[in-house]
Specification:
The protein is an all-beta fold and 756 residues long. Helix content is 2%, strand content 45%. Strands 49, 50, 51, 52, 53, 55, 60, 61, 62 and 64 form a 10-stranded antiparallel sheet that branches. A 6-stranded antiparallel sheet has the order 54-63-56-57-58-59, with no helix packed on it. It has a 5-stranded mixed sheet with strand order 18-19-20-21-25, with no helix packed on it. β18 and β19 form a beta hairpin. InterPro entries: PQQ_b-propeller_rpt, PQQ_rpt_dom, Quinoprotein_ADH-like_sf, WD40/YVTN_repeat-like_dom_sf.
Length: 756
């Protein structure tokens, strides 16, 4: 089917009635890479002309990613401001006029983003629910109705241990069936405490966790923002993407089952993959896993049969390489048109490759540099935004390419363009642009329809939510459905299950959650339950099995002196005994442990991995607010070399900087950084105290003080930071930074109490 569109040069008033009868969704651009998952538009134009040098309209928002377009609305992830005033924006605009329909601000916090690297990714629109999904730089996962009503908000950093990186590459959620998925580097709790590139799948209507998956290896070496591509294979709906541990992976979209991984790089891989005739094509720019050469484009033969691995990790795919080309790109993804690949390199060169053989057909220099942005192919032309802010329009041929137009935009261009209804949309670090493509008519190819296999016999249970946090005196209900072997839902409502406590055989900490199921199938945490974490197994009347896991957390006040921990684990490199950190704490595993220091059991920063010389731990849920934190802290070292230790209080970091001899308040250091002088002596205990006060008008003050342990608490705060828009809630946390893993930091006698 071909859907015909009218020219943008025609009178909108004369055509209004006719337009109501057309399918406005036929050529929407609801996702980062478009309806074909490869940067190619379905639109074709009659009498197409060059872009006008002047845009039809611009919008005052900066961006480094890709807008999406749905039902005559442009959904933009951008940012505004420079330093303390910088906020990320989720904006919905009228596609014809650029007029703002609604906009929400998403503050950054506790991120490592530098140089205003924001909005490197894209929102996603679900055509079924017509909802917008976005993950912010700080890992705030939001869902909004098209009219601006918030559906849910999940702080992935605090609830699941999502990390941030200075490169600030975020990517885009993807949707399959009733699940919306996002992957990044996560350091959760328990067995999922070690940092790894994990994919989390949430119910797209409720935000409840459905499943999670770790198809790669531990540890990762970088972040990765590769967007998965999805297909049906071996009766399953699977996705392929690249990871922060340098692999291409294959994961079931319905249940998170990992099938295989293939290492291709010694660093994280960011470019998205493309599917071509049973092959998968990927590219990276770092050192190859099997040689010292840097960069390669590779085609691999996808296995016809997918088998779940017996252990926690997926199977390594071997002998699958079809061809290899010595070509590299850090984060620009290939565009596939028929049997031809178009690839931008970091040096601003456009390459044309035969997708069947890997043969280089031609290359064309467009600019001196490119980062992140990928070409967009529309009706025989490639639209290429370059890092210098130049939009280059290229007509590719069999043996060469012609540059047909160049338009200089303000700022830098780092995001791929989008197109819908004959209008090109492109972001820059200064403005958002809308350029009409002159034409006398538009036709749209029919979008491919995904082949969804029918469900077979039920083989397992899927329990939603798959992970829970329950406060003392609270309870949680569940939805239980059955799945077939390929992950498809057989029954939406399985009744009569039997629940029992469950300890995975691979668990290093043999622990159970202090909670019980009542007759209504609700998991109940008693008012006097101890802080704990563990798993439960459900068995249906016909023998199907599923598991969930959860944390039972206490309400304020909270205290921890670590005296009850048994030091029964061996640290062979240091020759000491230790205990794993409190199991319910997010992000603690392998970054911190409990050990003895000067005859007392204390919380200590580990030297386990240099990648995590800086560690953040969240010790209580993200909804808490108006609390005071206090603990005793110490840094090893000398007058010339010390480390840092501090608190996370309501999304602010209050940190004792050893080498700087400062008590510092920050969130993102480029957004907020206030210091107070304090002389720090190595190997000396101090008492650190913090609180955040929020005023009725939304402003607030962040307070911190430090003094020698055992001395009287001073009345004055060591440092105060006034903020115009204060964070109103957030998880209490602990921060430690041992530079190059040289000097350890310690904490003891932690208390978290309501503000007085």
């Amino acid at each position: 089917m071909v859907t015909h569109r009218f020219s943008r040069t025609a009178s909108w008033s004369a055509l209004a009635a006719s337009l109501l009868t057309l399918s406005l969704q036929a050529n929407d651009w609801p996702t980062w890479r478009g309806p074909l998952q490869n940067g190619v538009s379905l639109e074709h134009y009659t009498d197409a002309g060059k872009l006008p040098e002047t845009p039809a309209w611009t919008y005052d928002a900066r961006g480094r990613g890709t807008p999406v377009v749905f039902e005559d609305k442009v959904i933009l992830w951008g940012y505004r401001g420079e330093t303390t005033d910088l906020v990320e924006l989720l904006t919905v605009l009228d596609a014809k006029t650029g007029k703002k329909i609604w906009e929400v601000e998403i503050p950054d916090y506790l991120s490592d983003s530098i140089y205003n690297r924001y909005s490197i990714g894209a929102p996603t629109v679900d055509p079924e629910t017509k909802r917008i999904y976005l993950v912010s730089n700080a890992g705030v996962f939001v869902c909004y109705e098209m009219d601006g009503k918030k559906v849910f908000e999940i702080p992935l950093m605090e609830d699941y241990g999502r990390l941030t990186f200075p490169n600030a590459r975020v990517g885009s959620p993807v949707i399959e069936g009733d699940v919306v998925m996002t992957h990044f580097i996560f350091s959760n709790w328990g067995a999922d405490g070690p940092a790894a590139d994990r994919m989390y799948g949430f119910d797209k209507k409720t935000g409840e966790l459905v499943w999670w998956s770790r198809p790669g290896i531990v540890p990762p070496v970088d972040s990765a923002f590769s967007t998965p591509v999805i297909e049906t294979r071996d009766g399953k709906r699977v996705m392929y993407y690249t990871t922060g541990c340098g692999h291409i992976v294959c994961v079931n979209t319905r249940n998170g089952q990992a099938y295989w991984k293939m290492p291709i790089s010694k660093n994280g891989v960011n470019a998205s993959t493309v599917l071509h005739k049973g092959n998968l094509i990927a590219i990276h720019a770092d050192e190859n896993i099997d040689s010292s050469d840097k960069g390669r484009m590779v085609a691999i033969k996808l296995p016809e049969t997918l088998t779940a691995a017996a252990g926690p990790e997926s199977t390594v795919l071997e002998g699958a390489e079809v061809w290899r080309l010595p070509l590299g790109a850090t984060s620009s993804s290939p565009v596939l048109v028929g049997d031809i690949l178009y690839q931008l390199t970091d040096g601003g060169e456009l390459n044309c490759i035969d997708a069947n053989t890997g043969e280089m057909k031609w290359k064309k220099k467009l600019s001196n540099a490119n980062l992140h942005s990928s070409p967009l192919y529309v009706d025989g032309l490639l639209y290429c935004p370059m890092m210098e802010g130049k939009l280059v329009v290229v007509k590719p041929g069999d043996t060469d390419a012609e540059i047909v137009q160049e338009i200089q935009l303000e700022g830098q261009c780092l995001g791929a363009p989008a197109v819908c209804d004959g209008v090109l949309y492109v972001t820059s670090t200064e403005k958002f642009y809308s350029f009409p493509i002159p034409n006398s008519g538009i036709k749209v190819d029919e979008a491919p329809v995904a082949e969804i296999p029918k469900a077979g016999k039920a083989t397992s249970l899927q329990i939603i939510p798959a992970e829970v946090v329950i406060m003392n005196g609270g309870k949680q209900s569940f939805r239980i459905r059955s799945l077939d072997a390929n992950g498809f839902v057989v029954s939406e409502d399985v009744k009569g299950v039997k629940w029992e406590s469950f300890i995975p055989p691979t668990a290093r900490v043999k622990a159970t959650m202090d909670a019980t199921f009542n007759d209504a199938g609700e998991l109940v945490v008693a008012a006097d339950a101890k802080e704990s974490a563990g798993a439960f197994k459900a068995t249906s009347p016909d023998g199907l099995i599923g598991t969930i896991r959860g944390r039972a957390l206490k309400s304020l006040p909270l205290t921890e002196n670590f005296d009850e921990y048994t030091l029964n684990e061996d640290q062979p490199t240091e020759g000491v005994k230790f205990s794993y950190p409190p199991l319910p704490w997010i992000g603690a595993r392998f970054k911190f442990d409990v050990r003895e220091y000067e005859g007392n059991k204390v919380f200590a920063k580990t030297f386990d991995r240099l990648l995590f010389q800086r560690g953040t731990v969240f010790v209580a849920p993200s909804h808490l607010s108006n609390y005071t934190m206090q603990a005793d802290v110490l840094t090893e070292g000398s007058a010339r070399l010390k480390s840092d230790i501090g608190f996370i209080n309501q999304r602010y970091l209050i940190c004792l900087r050893g080498n700087a001899n400062k008590l510092e308040i920050s969130s993102n250091p480029e957004r907020l950084k206030v210091e107070g002088n304090f002389k720090v002596s190595a190997n000396t205990w101090y008492t650190l105290k913090t609180r955040v006060d929020v005023n009725e008008d939304g402003s607030g003050v962040v307070l911190g003080k430090v003094w020698p342990k055992g001395e009287a608490e001073p009345e004055a705060w060591t440092v105060e930071a006034k903020v115009a828009k204060a964070h109103k809630q957030g998880s209490p946390g602990i921060f430690g930074f041992s530079q190059m893993n040289q000097k350890r930091v310690f904490m003891d006698n932690l208390s978290i109490t309501p503000n007085k």
